[in-house]
Amino acid sequence: MLIDRLVATALAGSLMLVAGGAGAQTVGPSGETATPSAEVRLSDADLAAVKEKGYKAALLWHTSSDFTNAVTAGAKDEFARAGIQIVATTDAGFDAARQRSDIETALAAKPNVILSLPLDPVTSAEAFRQALTDGTKLVFLSNLPKGYKHGADYAAIVTDDLFQMGKQAADALAKALDGKGKVGYIFHDASYYVTNQRDQAFKTTIEKDYPGIKIVAEQGISDPARAEELASAMLVQHPDLDGIYVTWAEPADGVLSALRASGNTKTKIVTLDLAEPVALDMVKGGNVTALVADKAYELGRAMAAVGVKALLGQETPAFVVAPALTVTKQNVAQGWKDSLNRDAPQSVLDAAK
Predict the structure, then answer these.
(1) Cβ atoms of 287 and 259 closer than 8 Å
(2) Is pTM, for the whole model, over 0.90?
């Protein structure tokens, strides 16, 4: 799932984090305060006003994955409530040129609203130009075409509450350590808006909210395949680590392998995003203590709701964030459903019994 959001790097210089410990938050491209997705709801009157209009929608995604499938499910369910027909669902395979072609093809079906994650800000700015000319309402996931203005060109950007993801990871690790101990911090050593914000939120929360916990080792990682190697070196230098934060689930699996190779059953891991290997270790009572995920289904629901409001001519918030959730052994089945709108892997469900 992480790679689905890494493509949205263009916002790295425009979205920012308002620091300040417990009061920190993610704000929008022009400093907009984030609107919680729970506040973007369609009333009975809204639904009645659009149901017989024959409106159509297109979902033009960057790739196909568990993450985008969950976003799609949330959008489809919300559009169904409003009587809006989905006329196109596409997968660009991370290819900006292909996405441009997808947009052109979808426009032939004359959708009234489009939901999309624009892969390339420059290419997509031109590709969506005809949609603007046609009066199609645009709602974007995590990224924004270059030069587009809220209200005039798009209804909203909807994304994860990235600060809360990092903060909840810090809270979960602190809980596992009873608020004291030495921890390692393995962050994403690349310029990516999503991971940078989440990683920094973890570090800021530990430093400001948990004085009994000290980050004694820091290691950047750009290639997940090197996670085991880098974690092994960290553990040689700091064999007494009580916990390790890992930037996302794939490298966390490598860190877990390093702990197993050294016979370490004490050091706790917390990481972000859902994945079967780390979830399986968690439910078996291993090193992994918690996983923090976004609510992908809720992202889709909120995007569709914004689209409906735009069709009704209502004012829409510029920047909407969906909540994070902490998944543990105790709530893994429900957490998987809340995040991805599907059951957890059978191996995880069996081990959690």
Answers:
(1) yes
(2) no
Q: Do domains 2-160+296-322 and 162-295+327-352 have the same CATH topology?
A: yes
Rg over alpha carbons for the chain, rounded to the nearest Å, is 21
Backbone dihedral angles phi then psi of residue 80, each to the nearest 5 degrees? -60, -40
- What are the angstrom distances between the C-alpha of 107 and each of 208, 236, 312? 49, 57, 20
In tens digits, the chain (353 residues) has pLDDT values of 665 655 544 444 445 555 444 456 777 777 788 999 999 999 999 999 999 999 999 999 998 888 899 999 999 999 999 999 999 999 999 899 999 999 999 999 999 999 999 988 899 999 999 999 999 999 999 889 999 999 999 999 999 998 999 999 999 999 999 999 999 999 999 887 788 889 999 999 999 999 999 999 999 999 999 999 999 999 999 999 999 999 999 999 999 999 999 999 999 999 999 999 999 999 999 999 999 999 999 999 999 999 999 999 999 999 999 999 999 999 999 999 999 999 999 999 999 98
Q: Tell me, which fold does domain 2-160+296-322 have in CATH?
A: Rossmann fold (3.40.50)
Domain 162-295+327-352 has CATH 3.40.50.2300: yes
